[in-house]
Records
---
Amino acid sequence: DIQMTQSPSTLSASVGDRVTITCRASQSISTWLAWYQQKPGKAPKFLIYKASSLESGVPSRFSGSGSGTEFTLTISSLQPDDFATYYCQQCNSNPWTFGQGTKVEIK
Amino acid sequence: EVQLVESGGGLVQPGGSLRLCCAASGFTFSNYWMSWVRQAPGKGPEWLANIKQDGSAKYYLNSVKGRFTISRDNAENSLYLQMNSLRAEDAAVYYCARNSEIAAAGNTFDIWGQGTMVTVSS
C-alpha cells in the first residue's frame, strides 16, 4: 500500500498568512493526488484533484502543486473559514490512502 | 441539493454485525461509483470499499475483505455496507462518499455524507 505522510501535523498561523502543507508519498504517484478540508464534526470537503486542479467552487486562494512523491497545498492568504484539518489522498493505486492530516490552527 | 445521508450505526459487541445504509438524493445515483470511507477518532480517513455504477464490480480494503460487503440498489438510490465479525478496531465514523465523475480526478470523493458512528465494545 502507498503510505502518505503529511507535515507538519499542526500549523499555527494568523489570518492573512501564506500557509504551505506538505504531503509525501511512499512511492511515485505521478499527479494522482487530492486534497480535502475537514472541520470538527463534519465530513471532509473535496478541494483539489490531479495535484493542482481546483474543484468547482473552491476559492482561488487554495492551490496545489507537485508530482511524483512530493506535493504541497498552499493557502495564499489564510481566512477565518480556513482553520481546519487538511488531508491528502493518493488516487494512483488501490487501496486509496490518506495522510494523517495537518491541523491549521489560530496563532 | 446533492445529499448523502447515512444511517444504521450504533453500539455492537465484538463479533457482531451491523448494516449501514446511505440514501442519495439530488443527483443521478446510478451514474456514479460509490464508496464507503471510515475515520477513527483523531485519524485520517480510510477508504474501505467501492462499487461500480451497476454493481458489477466491487473492491475492498484487505483488512475488511471477507467481513464487509458493499452493495447498492439504484431503484432506491441507496448504498449499503454489511459489516460482520466486527472488531474493536472497526470503531469509527463511517461515511458514504460519491466518487468524482471527473476522469482526471481518478478515485477521489467529491460528495460525502454526514457520517454514522459505529462503536464496537462489550
Note: The first strand of chain A starts at residue 4 and ends at 7.
---
Amino acid sequence: QVQLVESGGGVVQPGRSLRVSCTASGFTFSSYGMHWVRQAPGKGLEWVAMISYDGSDKYYADSVKGRFTISRDKSKNTLYLQMNSLRTEDTAVYFCAKEPGGAYRWYFDLWGRGTLVTVSS
Amino acid sequence: QSALTQPASVSESPGQSITISCTGTSSDVGNYNLVSWYQQHPGKAPKLIIYEFNKRPSGVSNRFSGSKSGNTASLTISGLQTEDEANYYCCSYAGSSAFVVFGGGTRVTVL
C-alpha cells in the first residue's frame, strides 16, 4: 500500500551527527517532492526541509540551514536527512511527508509515522 | 512562537459546528492560496484535511470546510463527532524566505 516509513532515530549527544531515513512504497517515489517536518515533544509542527522530485532543488528552514542536509536515492525509494552539530532543541519526532505532485504545492498529502530523535548528554 | 496564530483550544458539543481561525500576515496567508489544514490524533501522524485553503482531499468528510479572508484562514467542522477530537494545524507557504510556516495547533474537544 501507499506508505512512508521512517527509521534511524535514537539518542545522540549534543554536537554529534545522525541520519534518519524514510522509505517509500506504493507510489512512484521519483516523481514527487518530499519534505521533513518535525514535532518536539508536546509541541506543534515545524517544517524542516524540502527536496524536489529529482533532487535538484533543496530548501531548508533557517533553524537547520548549514547543519542538516536533505537527500534522496531513487534506486532505494528512500529519503534521507543528515543531521550534524545536533542541539538539544533538535529533539523531536521527525516525519517525512510527500508533496502532491506537479509544481511545488507546499503541502503534504501523505505522512509517515515518524522517528524520534533525542539529543541529550 | 509559531508564525501563524491559532486558538489553543476549542470545545463544543456533538452535532454542533466550530470554526478555527489561523491568522498570518501578508507574507504568507494573505499572499498565497497555499493554505492547508492537518488533523492529528495523539501519537499519530498528521492527516491532510484541507489544501489550497478550501479544497478537500478524496476521502475526507464534507463536514470539514476551509475558507480564507485577507490574512486569516479558517477551518469549519460541522456536525461535530467524537472522532473529531484531535489537534488541528494550519500551514501556509510563506515565500522563498521562510517557505513553510505552521500554526501552533488547536486542540478540539467534543464535550
Note: The mean pLDDT of chain A is 96.
